[in-house]
UniProtKB/TrEMBL annotation:
GO BP: any one term: fucose metabolic process
Protein EC: 3.2.1.51
Signal peptide interval: 1-27
Organism of derivation: Streptomyces tuirus
Keyword Transferase: no
Protein name: alpha-L-fucosidase
Pfam families: Alpha_L_fucos
Family label: Belongs to the glycosyl hydrolase 29 family.
Molecular function terms from GO: alpha-L-fucosidase activity
Region (Disordered): 23-45, 185-205
Organism lineage string: Bacteria, Bacillati, Actinomycetota, Actinomycetes, Kitasatosporales
Keyword tags: Glycosidase, Hydrolase, Signal
Glycoside hydrolase family 29 N-terminal domain residues: 92-399
Keyword Signal appears in the UniProt entry: yes
Amino acid sequence: MAVSRRLFLASATALAATAGLTAPAPAAPQGSRSRIPVSPDDTPEDLVRKASQVRPTAQQIAWQRLERTAFLHFGVNTFTGLEWGTGDEDPDVFQPTGLDTDQWARALRDGGFKLAILTVKHHDGFVLYPSRYTGHTVASSSWRDGRGDVLRDFADSMRRHGIKVGVYISPADENQYLHGVYANGSARSPRTVPTPVDGDDRTPSRSYTLPATDYGAHMLNQLYEVLTEYGPVDEVWFDGAQGHIPPDKVEKYDWDSWYALVRSLAPDAVVAVTGPDVRWVGNEGGLAREDEWSVVPVQEKAYGRTDYALSYDAPDMGSRDALVAARPVADHLQWWPAECDVSIRDGWFYHADQQPKGVEQLTDIYFRSVGRNSVLLLNVPPDTDGSLPAADVRRLREFRERIDRELPEDLTRGARTVTSPGRVTVDLGRDREVDRVRLGEDIRHGQQVESFVVEAYVDGGWTEVSRAGVIGASRILLLPAAVRARRWRARVTGARGAVRIAEFGLYRSRV
């Protein structure tokens, strides 16, 4: 979260096992074509050809279709006013006496969000469910007499209102550092998960033996709890944060083992953003690049972490020039689409003196994230009562209503459409005014379009009304003025391989 994402992303090699270690295996689902090896000897033509062959996994396709997802930062920081806690907070400070996760779910549903991610554990180490492996949890608070479970309430409410469940478990843990577990210098060794504890009444149907440090095993056990006791999870969200600890005390995270466990226990989930399935876009303003590629060059780092081959904030992440620039260090081309995270307020946690962003700003963020081949992750922090603030709820509804007015009924529905290689032509049946154009590739066949133009048949000839670079899963163009025409077409002017356009929508905004 805040200031932590830029500390790297993740994965590639996993060691999944049942009662024993296995040989390394790809972190992507078996049979996936989501990553293809490259070498410094590849020619520019080789790189483009390989990029055209990369395909998303089924999980990545499902994630991309969500378009708008939500983050809920909630924990002891909500009550202390901090953005990054210290780990020695008194758990009793956590007192959301009016906790209403159904209100969260209703507000997110009415705002158009399809998945929500809860901060199950932030960097301070306080856990929002009664974990067996730490005392720094809701069970140590007098809230609900120590029987509260925010994760349980959250998961049940989201599913009850048709919203998918995501979890964020911070790799950093200030509390475990204070207890001598995090960054204690322990070596990786085989660890059995779940690790039995006193009074443990579980009878796991499957156990895992995975390489981990002391803290890596602690994380594995918490992941096991979350992914086996709270129902299906569709996104597991990590960042790469290190704790506020001496530089010689760095914890080397056991990414490969964590990913292996997630793959086994939550096979439908994407692992983001220090993960092999979804990458951080590179800023916390919710803004994608003008041309956002889902196929990007990566390099594999220690313990299976997939890292950027270029800088995380490089202005160009996947063009032909970028593929060549990354050639000396890249070892794969990977389907690694961008997630654009931003908070509705200035902070990630609730602060009473902050107010939500305006509808105009949120709408601009939408067009510069969802409209640029990315998924928007909007944080909406609950307040100290345990509810989403009324101003934020109202803003979410206004935001959804604004997008509905920006992109009302698609004028191409029922229209005559002719598709030929690299071209889609639509006859609307009569002249219609258009000022929004939406396109999407069938990403099951990769991301191929490098440039295209949109044209309208005006005054007896085809007239260019807009041009852009990549398309990907979603590209939305805002025309500077409405254009009136009956016939419209999208024409690809540059591509890496065979193009399959899945969507060519025309709209007249009602703003």
